[in-house]
Amino acid sequence: MNRIFFLILLFWTCGAIANPEPTRVSLLKLIATPEKYSGKLVAVEGYLHVKFEDSVLYLTKDHADRLMGKEGLWVNYSDEISFLPTSENNLGYFDAKWVTIIGVFEFSGEQNHGHMSSNSGTLNEVSRVIEQRQWYDGSIEIER
After folding, report:
1. Which fold would CATH assign to domain 22-131?
2. Side-chain half-sphere exposure of 97, counting CA atoms within 13 A
3. pTM (two decimals)
């Protein structure tokens, strides 16, 4: 009985290590307190640009439109990335959209601040990009 319990515990622990749950954190917290999250798998929301020399998750659309890099994180994608909606398999679809991204946050070192060191950190090994739907436009609820 103890062996069975030990084996179950071992497999459960290995599974948890192999597939860690990301820490949900705001982009503002990552920028304000980067040392707290450096090296951790995070899920963060923001406005995404997928452009040449501008692969950045911004705090707001206004920051993105003005290329205010310090208000965003450079994004490096994993070779094995998944998308939601799943019908989209092209990063270009997510350009100029509100998204949730799952990746490893890094902020120390020159290589972790994007193109020309213009960002506040980097999201490395991004494995998931999820489009955020708009549910309300300020006056009416949008149909689902």
Report:
1. OB fold (Dihydrolipoamide Acetyltransferase, E2P) (2.40.50)
2. 17
3. 0.80
